[in-house]
């Protein structure tokens, strides 16, 4: 496959392997492999060999000349450290520029506290990744936005955070006690894929593995976005990490979808959520802010990439 099938400059400009794959700079081996496997299903040449899709050649070129090299780099931890070092060098260049000259996403994230920036970064990466390969016409711009997000995020952290050889979660895990979830707190799990994610999340919550539980719940919400149980458990996860604002957002959303959700009702008093607050537009302002910001940052020629 000739590299000329890619638009000029793509290989040189899309040099952030994390952005090409569509993952955060803290992704571990499991997350990297899972994302690569997903992209292989979408874009692998074998999948498109007998397909008359006009994007067939572009999809194959992207997979061969961008995704494969990025995965080869990220699957080795030492090479990941080299990639981080290169991105950090680019982040220092970005830091020297006036804030007013940077992108809207850079200006917004720099205004946030560190915990808020971490949560925003994690949510934004997930949103961009979902949209990144849905349309190859928007792939280049979305990937560039992920690169900018990575650079801005790296500005917020000291270099020694990336020295450990083992994977580092985006939200550092502290010593935790297992969470007791009774059968009255969580509903029986059936057999569809979203509920399998939910069941795994319950087990991770019981073990105090917050980061993995968040990912499983996000996957469940993508498949079943109106299930109050998923939002309630996600709210509990943020509560246990002491991210009270985000916990309120998800508990309120759970109550908005189902005012009788037992898990949301159990923790609503601890979060000082008043009865009926979930129907107040102000109580959901923070939840909507992330979606609104991401919509603005993914605009392209009058169209939007929706998360």
Task: Explain what this protein looks like in three dimensions.
It is built from 15 helices and 2 strands. It is globular, with a radius of gyration of 20 Å. It is mostly helical. Strands 1-2 form a two-stranded antiparallel ribbon.
Which spans of ≥5 residues are poorly predicted at pLDDT below 50?
A: 158-175, 277-291, 294-307
* Helix-and-strand structural type: mainly alpha
Q: State the helical fraction.
A: 55-70%
General form: globular
Mean pLDDT over the residues? 75
What attributes does this structure have?
two-stranded antiparallel sheet
Q: What are the SSEs and their pairings?
A:
Layout: H1 10-13, H2 17-21, H3 29-43, H4 45-48, H5 56-74, H6 77-95, H7 104-110, H8 114-132, H9 136-155, H10 193-207, H11 210-223, H12 228-240, H13 244-257, H14 262-267, H15 285-297, E1 299-300, E2 303-304
Antiparallel strand pairs: 1-2
Helix pairs in contact: 3-5, 6-9, 7-9, 8-9, 10-11, 11-12, 12-13
Structure summarized in a few sentences:
The protein is mostly helical. The protein has helices at residues 10-13, 17-21, 29-43, 45-48, 56-74, 77-95, 104-110, 114-132, 136-155, 193-207, 210-223, 228-240, 244-257, 262-267, 285-297, and strands spanning 299-300, 303-304. A two-stranded antiparallel sheet has the order 1-2.
């Amino acid at each position: 496959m000739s590299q000329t099938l890619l638009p000029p400059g793509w290989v040189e400009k899309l040099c952030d392997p994390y952005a090409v794959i569509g993952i955060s700079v803290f992704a571990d081996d499991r997350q990297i492999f899972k994302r690569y496997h997903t992209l292989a299903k979408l874009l692998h040449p074998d999948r498109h060999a007998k397909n008359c899709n006009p994007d067939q050649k572009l999809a194959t070129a992207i997979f061969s000349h961008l995704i494969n090299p990025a995965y080869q780099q990220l699957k080795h931890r030492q090479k990941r450290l080299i990639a981080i070092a290169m991105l950090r060098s680019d982040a220092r260049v970005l830091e020297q520029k006036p804030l007013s000259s940077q992108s809207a996403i850079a200006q917004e994230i720099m205004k946030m506290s560190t915990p808020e920036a971490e949560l925003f970064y994690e949510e934004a990466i997930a949103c961009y990744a979902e949209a990144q390969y849905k349309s190859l016409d928007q792939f280049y711009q979305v990937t560039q936005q992920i690169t900018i997000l990575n650079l801005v995020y790296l500005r917020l952290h000291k270099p020694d955070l990336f020295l450990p050889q083992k994977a580092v979660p985006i939200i550092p895990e502290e010593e935790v006690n297992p969470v007791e979830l009774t059968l009255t707190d969580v509903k029986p799990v059936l057999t569809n894929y979203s509920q399998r994610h939910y069941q795994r999340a319950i087990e991770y919550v019981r073990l105090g593995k917050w980061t993995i539980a968040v990912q499983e719940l996000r996957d469940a919400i993508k498949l079943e976005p109106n299930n109050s149980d998923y939002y309630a458990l996600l709210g509990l996860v943020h509560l246990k990490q002491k991210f009270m604002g985000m916990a309120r957002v998800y508990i309120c959303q759970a109550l908005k979808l189902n005012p009788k959700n037992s898990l949301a009702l159990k923790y609503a008093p601890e979060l000082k959520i008043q009865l009926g607050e979930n129907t107040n537009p102000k109580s959901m302002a923070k939840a909507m802010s992330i979606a609104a910001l991401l919509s603005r940052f993914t605009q392209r020629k009058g169209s939007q990439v929706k998360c």
